[in-house]
Every structure is written in structure tokens, then in C-alpha cells.
Structures
1.
Amino acid sequence: MIAGRIEHMASELASQPETWAAAASLTAEQALLPARGERIAVVGCGTSWFIAQSYAWLRETGGHGETDAFAASEAFVDRGYDAVVALTRSGTTTEVLQLVEGLRGRVRTIGVIGDATSPLVELVDDAVTLPFADERSVVQTRFATTALALFRSSLGERLDDAIADAGLAIAEELDPALIDAEQFTFLGRGWAVGLAHEAALKMREASQSWTESYPAMEYRHGPIAIAAPGRVTWHFGEAPDGLGDEVAATGARFEAGRLDPMAELVRAQRVALGRARAKGLDPDSPRNLTRSVILDD
């Protein structure tokens, strides 16, 4: 931390056990989300798109109904969906607002939004606001995971173990080798793929690190070529058989995530913050980025 500067990212990411527990208790808000059996799409930009991918996998494989996830700018929403869920921290992102505006009167829209005063609140049919998880840092940490905690709870999952794991992730002493690593590749399977993508994004945003991310089974199809001493391959959730040994044979470090994948993301957020500090960067205001992407007409 640079002297004299308040670091919002640090306090926000450390608050995640509390914000996840709060989201898990929001039964009335969870009831506004699509009902079991409905065919839906979930849209977002950047971090929200990756969380949408995780929610879509959990919802569909849990038998709750067909669920697609799209980047808001590339969404195919004229497919007879019963509802479209728009996930956005700011509620001001241009692509999300345009998409929801185009659906008015045709498809039910549900917004999951950090800023309860944003224009999207009035634009959607139903708004679930999470102001307690909103953030001052440009780099998202707790809003994204709190939204996913809300989604997981709405699907009937208990989050006690995930919340406990998040506490462990926050209390853990970071290995200096992770702070000093040259390169990171994040991997996951199933719902953890979206979280792997999000971990890589956090590293790029906060610390300008070279990071990549893939579904775990795709890693052998080319990306393993960059594994080497001084680099890290970090898997969220249970890894495919033999993958750790293959990475170790390259000389790279294989970080086998043993916590709930959402808590493993908290570990990656802490490493991103540590790397930003080591480089003298401001993780709250990364270069070339703003809190919300608002495009001029």
C-alpha cells in the first residue's frame, strides 16, 4: 500500500464472507429470480459476463431450466426466453441498458444491480439491488462474488462451507512465489470456468500481469506450451486426472485449488492486489479503466 492512499480493493475483498452471508439471507430477492423450469438468458459485461457463465452452468445442470450466458454486446435474446437476467454492478453500462431497452414489453427482465439508484433499476421489470456489496474500487471483487452467492442460494445451495473457505482465503499468508511469478494461467471445470476467467481478468486489471484462462480440458490443446519455470497454472476446483503431473513436468508451479472455487477466486484477488502493491500500482484505479463503460452516442 502506498503511504497516504486508502486502498478500497483491500477492504472490499476482505468483506466477502459477510456479503455472501447477507446475500444468502435475501429470500425475497431470490424469489424474484427466474423460477424453476423457465428458459432464460443471463447477460453482463466483463466480470458480470463471467459470473453469468457460472450461474448458467449451475442453474442448467441443477435441473432448474435451460440457461444461456452472453456478453451483453453479443447476446442472442430473441430465442423465446421466458426471462433475461441482466447482471451489472453500476447499472449504467451502455450495452446492458441498450439490450434491456430493446426487450421492454417483450420479455421479462430482471436486473441484479449494485447501485440501487442506477437507471437500470427503473428499466427492468424486477430489480434485485445489492448496495451492501457495491464498491468504490474500479476492480470488482465482492459485488461479483456476492451476486453469485445470491444465485447459488436461489438454486437451493447452502453456502456455509463456501463462506468458511472465504475466511480461510482472506486469513492465509500469501506465498511470495505467487507475488513474484512471471505468468499465470487459470483453469476450471463446470461452473468454475467462469471464475477462472474472472481470476485472470483481476490479475490483468489490478496488476497488469500476463494471465490467461481456459476450461481445464482445453489446456492440453495448446496453452500448456507456455508453462515453464517461474510460471503458475492455477486450477479452481477438482482438476482432471494427471494434469498436475503434466504441469509439474514443465517446471511450472501447479496450484491445486482446494477451497470452494468462489473462495479460490478470493485467493487470486489477494494475489492480484499483492502484485499491484509490489509494482507500486493503484489497484483502485487501473490504467485505461473506469467503473462503468458508457459509450457516447
2.
Amino acid sequence: MTSTVTATTSRTRAEAASPRRRSWAPYLLISASVAVLLLGMGYPVIWQVVTSFQKYGAMQQLGGKAPDFVWFDNYIAIATNSTFWGVAFRSIAFCIITAVITIVIGVLLALLMSKVPGAVRLILQIALLLAWAMPVIAAMTVWIWLFDRRSGVINYLLSLIPGVDMTGFNWIGTTPVLFFLVAGLIVTWMSVPFVAFSAYAGLTQVNGEVVEASQLDGAGAWQRFRFIIFPVLKPIIAIVLLLNLIWDLRVFAQITLLQDAGPKSTDYDLLGTYIYKTGVAGFDYGGGAAMSIFVLALTIAISWFYVRSLVKEEAR
């Protein structure tokens, strides 16, 4: 018995003294994905960084002349461009408002799905899935028709209210506030299903016995949500909020299609459409690249808060 214990102890000490064997299999398995990411995303980012330091216009795009390095001139130009900063602040406000509203509606729908009978929940899930899966072009065609000032359903339904006449009212081209109200409604409608499904998946991890016990102890609906449900949903809400902030900051197709049906002024631009008009339509690829790097830096800054919280949780 003593010899067995001694042998086991010696083996344990030898294993502790020897370096731990490292398995390279996980690294080999993810190497292909990392390579695709580096090629698919790394090269465009490097190209954008290099171009942001160049005077890159139509002649350079056609290959007639090599681009000249102007170093920080493009960044100085956008830093002193009041129109760009107006668009930037408008985009930040738009993404924060739409993301918060999307999270609230999505969580409420998830709570609703957890309470309704199975048949109603299935119908609601199918409706959300169809809204989420609908192509952007098809969805925007329907939404533009709904808000059309000549034959739109929204104006028709509002005109049925006694004392209200919305005939010919232009939702898209009257003021920027109404334009972004419609745009925010569309973006929220497209994003809510993802949040609702994510939050509903998180609700399945809530301990039903704990919720029932708290209800028997007299806890109200808000108290049950705050102290039992929300702590479980908090990590999910954090990641979907981050994703929605990033997506809504870079929204492009919805704004472009609304502008095609209405005004095209910079007062109706967000960062995505303004960069496109400057870089592609305006043949100022250097300035557009500098603006894109600004959006990239802003996205990293937004993501940093979530990454830092993950690091703190891992440290605990």
C-alpha cells in the first residue's frame, strides 16, 4: 500500500514538473476560418487604411494615374467638415434610439411568447420568422407603398379617424424628423425578431420553481422580472444590444431606398449613405475611406465596453 502511494505521488510530481502537453488540434480546426476572415475582412480594411492617406479619385480608380499620398489631409478635411459631424451625431442618435426600442419590444415579445398557449406562440414565432427572413428590397417595397402619399394604406387608415385628413400627406419628404421616424420604424421592425428569439431562448433557462416560489411569497410581476428573470437575460441583452448598435450605426439599404422614394438631401443622410455619396458617387475614395475608418473606430469603441465586461467576468 505504501509503495503504491509512493508511486502515485512520484508520478504526480513528474507530471507537475514536466511541461503540459499542448494539443494543436483546435488551432488547426479554426485555422481555415481565421484564414477566410483575414482574406475576406483583413484585406479590405488594409486597403481602406492605405486609401485614407491618399488622394484617390476617378482617375486613380480607372488606372490612369497613381494615387498620391496626402497623409492626414483626408482626416483633417472630415474633421473640419460640419456636414459630416452633423451626419455622424445624427447616426449615433438614430442607432441608440432604434437599438433601445428594439431591445424593449423584443424582450416584451419574448415574455409574451413564454406566457401564451402553444398554438398562439407558434403563430407568433412564424410571423416573426417571416418578418426576419423577408429580403430587404421586398420589405422596403412594401413599407414605401404603405407610406405612399398618393395611395398609401397609412394615410387611408388615418383619414378614417373623424376630423383627420391625411390625404396626400408626405411622410418621407416633409421633414427629416418624419423621414427618420419612418426609417426607425422599419429598422426596428426588421431587428425585433432576432432580439425576441434570443431573449426567448434565454427565458428557457429561468428556473420555473424559483419564479413560482417568489410569486407565492408575494413578489409582483416587476419584482420577478427584475430580480429573477433579468439577471438571466442580462448577458443576452448585452450582446444583442451591442449587435443592434453596430447594425443600426451602419444601416444603408433602408435609408437609400427611402431616399430613392423621397428627398436626397444630406439632411436625410446617415453615415452609410453619406460615405457612399462621398466616396463612390462623388469619386472621392480617399475621403470616403477616411470616413469609413472613423466608423470602424466608432464601432470598436462601442464594442470595447462589452469586451471589457467579458474580461472582468473571466477574471472573476
3.
Amino acid sequence: MHTARRKARAPRRPRAPRTPAPSPPAKPDLDLANINLNLAVALDALLTEGNVTRAAARVGITQSAMSHALRQLRELLGDALLIRGRGGMVRTPRAEQLAAPLHRGLLEVQRALRNESVFDPKASSRRFILATTDYFASALLPSLLELMDTEAPLVDLVVRPLVIPQIEAQLESGELDLVVGAYPEPSPVLRQQKLFTEHFVCVVRRDNSVVKQRLDLETFLRLPHVLMSPRGEGVGSVDIALEKLGRTRRIGVRLPYFLTAALAVTRTNHVLTAPRRLAELFVEPGNLRILPPPVELAPFDVLQVWHERFDDDPAHRWLRGMMLRAAAAPRSSR
């Protein structure tokens, strides 16, 4: 047998240590003296709106001027800031980090320049932003606007939809001044003040062929019901009360808006269980009547909520006082 000769292997050369890739040079700190404050305002609008056209309208400049500002900001910050996504423009991670502190900072600058140690509502042209539902807006805004017409003719009011998960951040940043509603979440940084206590009533068509002088439980359960449900699902206070009695009702329609829910009763035999102040808005001009519910329903408090940062702000205190007065304004008895 022949034995295969093995070739001698050359000794391995030691590998040279890898040279790490050079890190990109650190960008020098931005010199605020060389930055146009208008760029910060434009950036705030762009990150808020996520759209060049809407951001331009928000600031009051042309679309081309806003596009030019975006190009300058991208070069200044070394980041795209906004990129195209499936649903439109979306923020980059760097933009997400900038959005909240930038907005807070601009609000602080605005307040510092105002120097409103004393707030004069008759002379002020300040804009306040509230978040609430259509029910609370309908219940309070007529009285609030009536007071403002007389005492603060130049003050503007913006009402936005109530988005519960975002409330604390929006109140802290100043994006919202007040939240009005039945806000149950306690928070160490949010202040609450009761505006009024609300009670539930039943609303039926005046010529409802089934309901007589009173609404008993059996009739109540026999009729279809309207439920105000923002997401089109779930149950309400009535269903929880009925469950304790071992009973259920038929929910004929779920609607996302309080005002539409009241209108749904005007031409049908449906029953709507709703807050009294909402029901009173529709009884007089429509063909509806209010009846006590046949089940016991606990009342609830309607609150105004704000961030502790604005406890001592004179304009903010004035607004909260106006909300209290609007809530206490007399309503016609029915």
C-alpha cells in the first residue's frame, strides 16, 4: 500500500486587527444666533400637519415658501424629517424626537413675549383650544360663546375631537388648553374641576304608539334602543344596570355621535337614554318628550381638565372661570 504524502502546510499568518470604520464627524452644535426663528415655526407646523400645503396654511405662507423652508431644515438638521409613507408624509425618528419639545418651546416663547401678567379679555386676541365631544360642545358652547361675545369679542375658540390616549401629552404641550367631558382617569399632573352633574333620561317620540304616560320596564325592554357608541360596539350604562336585574335590551342602532342619536328617535319608536342636557336641546323644537328611565342609572360629573403648568396663567384662569359660568347659566325648564 502506498501512503499518500501530505503536503506541509505553511504556517498561518496572524490576521491584522480590523480597523473600525471611522465614525461620521460629530455635527457642531447649532448656533441659535444664526437660525431664523421662522424656520422653527415652520418646522413645528410641518411636524404637526405632516403635509406641506396644510403647514403653509397654518403659518400663513405660500406652499413654495414652506417647501423651501423644509429644504433648509433638512440641510440644517441633516435629516429628512418627513418622508413619504403609504398614507402620506410620515415623521422620521429624529422628527419624532423634535416634535413635542419644539412645540412646547415655541409656546413658552410665545407666552414670554406676550407678557400677560394681567389678562385683558376685551383687548386680547388669544386663541384657546378645547377638546370635547359633540354632546358637551352642544351643552356648553352656546352659553360660553354668548359670554365671550360680550366680554372677549376678539378671543377665538377652536374645538377639537376628544382623543383620550393623547390628552395628557396635548395638555402638557399646550396643544390643548382644556378638555371638557366625563374624564375618569386620575393623573398627578392634571387638574380637574367639576362643571356640573349630569343625569340620564329617556327620550321617545311624542306620538310613540307604544309608550303611554310613563315608561315602565317591560315597555322599555320591548322597544328597540339607540346607543351612542363612538366605535360602534360595546354597551352602555343601561346595559350594566339591566344586567344586575338579569335582563337585556335590544340595541337597534349604534351611532358614533350624540346629536345624531337624538335625531334617530324623531321618526321611529326607538328609545334613546341620554344625558338630560342633550335631551333638552331637542324636546322643544322637535316632537320628542323626556321620561324618567325605568331603571336606576347613576349620575356622572362633567369636568374641565387642564395641566398643572397652566394653573397660574391669567388667561387660562379666565377661560376656566368662563367655562364655570357657562355651565351654571340658566336653562329653560322642561
4.
Amino acid sequence: MVLRAGVMGLGVMGRNHARILAGLTGVEFVGVFDPAESTPDFVHDRPVFRDLDEFLAQDLSYVVVAAPTVYHLEMGTRLAESGIHALIEKPVASTSEDARALRDLFDAKGLIGGVGHIERYNPALQAARQRIEAGLLGDIYQVTTRRQGPFPGRIADVGVIKDLATHDIDLTAWVTQQQYVSVNARTTFRSGRPHEDMVLAVGTLSSGTITSHTVNWLTPFKERTTVITGEKGSLVADTLTADLTYFKNGTIRSEWEQVSTFRGVVEGDVTRFALERREPLLAEHEAFRDSVINGAAKGIVTLDEGAKVVQIAERMAADGLLHRPSAVVE
């Protein structure tokens, strides 16, 4: 069975999706829809359509939506009404209300809908999830993430929370298999744009795990780090290099009666795992392709999960605004 697939939007991510689709086994890359005059006429020897109706008439099995977030609801709706499965880049929609509308529409049509939270497919986080499930860390106490770097000129319609922090919201819930039950945040607006460009957030998950997320567009170096701490030690994942390191708790022995009940930890063995490093975007596409073939969402980020991420992101943004200096009342 060969699926016919296309892309909507030819920005940075759209070009990467087109590259993957052009070489993906079991898939025929049909082309791209992008009405911008600056786009080329062909990508990977496939046409760039300027007319949406013409694009949707290409007998498409599924489409990757890589246009700006503000267009996701409109494009996703057109695809669902045309009976076409869709992988929609994160965030799945501009608001949680729109995200739920897409979820409900795809469910009603019996279509596969996925969200492009690519960090789930990073080898370091995949390996971390597997080892946590195997009991390597025991109970999970805390997840901390740092996602920092310079401002990306391609982003204009959302702030750093929906663009970047959504990665951390999704991966934290996924790697721990818990849901957020509360979140608080502080935000700044330093670059003269209407959206926040820096956030420091803390949260609590459904099994009591606490989280912290440092995310910004104002740091002159790029960092993508996740630290998962549990009763037996810590896993440190660097998703830029796809490295995963395990810091095991050492053993404390004391014959001093007054401190023998102390339950702290010391440094133990350190293990850097050897991982198979496959491109996360390719793994994401393979999972979505297989879900379409099998008619069941398996190994993908569902529209329901994507909607929950947007909801938590909205809570972060709202709490950040609540605590801006101008909003604080003495």
C-alpha cells in the first residue's frame, strides 16, 4: 500500500517535512501547498500548488500542516472535511478551544490526527522513557527542563510558551506518564513584541512529581536539556546531541547514631548510554505513516494530547501575565 502525502506550508519545518516525505518508504510525495509568491515552483521535483482546491484534489492520503499556527484550525478543518488524515505541527492550534474543535472534528470523521511534538522521538528521551518504565529511577521526584537560545526570525504569531515550552510540557507528561494538575509562571517581554519571550514555570504532576521549565529566546547559546530525578538517581538528556547519562545514587553508610537516619544521597556511578541515533523527524513520520496504514493512532501524539498541551500553555501564559510588575497590586 502506497500512501499519497503532501505538505501545507513551505517554511523551515515545511521544507524538512517535504525532504522526509520525498524519501519515505511506502509514501508518494505529491507536492506542497503554499500561496506565497516567494516559494519555488517545485520542491524535490514535486509541484508547489498555489490553489488550495487544486492541492486537495490530488487524491491525498494525508497531509502535514506546517503553516503558521494561526492557520491550523482553518487548514485542519479543510483536510478533515475532505477526508484526509493530518499531521499538524505543534502547537496544534492557537487556542485550546480551536485544538479541541480539531480533535472533535477528526474523531467525528474517523480520521487519524497527529501533532508534531518532535521531541518525543528524540533518541535520548525515547531511551529515558524506556528506562523509567523499567524502574531505573524508581519513583520520579522532579523533572527540570532548559530550552534556551537566540530569537528565531521565523516565529511571529505566538510567544515562546506556545512555540518552545509546549515541547517541554508534552515531553514531561509523556516521559513520566503523568498529567499536569497545576502550573505557575513568570514571563517577560523584552524584545518589543506583543508575545512573551522568556518564561520560568513550575508545575505539579498527577503523581506528585514537581517540574520546572526555563524557556527563552533571549540567550546567545542554544540549550536543550532535561533532567529527571527519582529515588534511585537522575537521568540527564541532551536533545541537541541525543545523549543520555545516568547518575546513580551512591550509598551512605554511617555508624554515628545521631545522623544514621539521614536519607540523603551522594554521588555514585555515572553511565553514558550508547544509543542508536535516528533522525527524530523521520521516526515521527514513520509512526504517523503506520498509524494511517493501520487505521489506529499508535506511537503518535494524538490531537487530544496536543489540545491538553495548549491548555497548559495557556495557563502558563495567563499566570505569567498575572504576575507582571504592572499587574501586581500592593
